[in-house]
Write the structure tokens for this entry.
Amino acid sequence: VPLSEEEQIKQALEAIIAEHNKGKHYAGFFVRAIAYFIDNVILSATGVLILMIMSAVQAIDLNALADAMNAYINTPTSEEALNKVIDVPGTHLFLVIWGVVQAIYFIAFTAIKSATPGKMLVKIHVEVAHGEPMSWVSAALRFIASLITQCTLMFYGLGYLIVFIDPKRRALHDYIARTRVVHDKIKEVDSRK
């Protein structure tokens, strides 16, 4: 009995899914960059909210900060302009809060969901080298290692660019933390449809 067109499509989809799920499909540079961009949009909105709250309780003067930032934008290589930004009362407190928020964001999401919201949206996740889910310790280690990778930006971002040549698409912090970023497995085709 020949299969209907719908059954043929379903079988073809099941074969594609089975082939995809056979092995690991490591996430490359660009999909990871998109996820990181999404995470930074979320964190930037959170940073603006923190600044607004700090301004409301008069812990920072947003007008003084805006003036200092404008001076820095006009002369970004000026150490004096950067010092003016840092010397605005409340800036140090904001930077501490901002650092803690980022650490909580990346560590908690990676430990609980094995992926930040950015990674979830592009359907990738982090796992330990042998395929186990992330723990709190491995998520914290990966976050600390990512700070080291960020330091390589002054060396043309080599800590990130090694993703292009590594067969498992690992960045420097993945080597340090013994993690991998992989594509999510595709869910089975629902046979009831």
